[in-house]
Amino acid sequence: MDNGFRDRNRKSYVRLRMVYDITMAGLILAMGFIFCFGDRFGLSFIATVEPVMRYGFGALCLLYGGFRVYRALRHDY
What is the H or E stretch that residue 17 is in? Predict the structure, then answer.
């Protein structure tokens, strides 16, 4: 009986962690796209940031967001 409870608890944890990773990856990817392409969408507060910093931070966000998606889909916790 105790083993079934642990299995359900583990499955619940994995599912919750996967949803959390996908949500965070979506937010981080969105932030990366905003920093990389925000000036094309008319976001004036993004255009005031120096381009090297803007594109560098945007690229880092896109890479880390992609890693979070990979980790969520692999769900090896």
Answer: helix 2-37
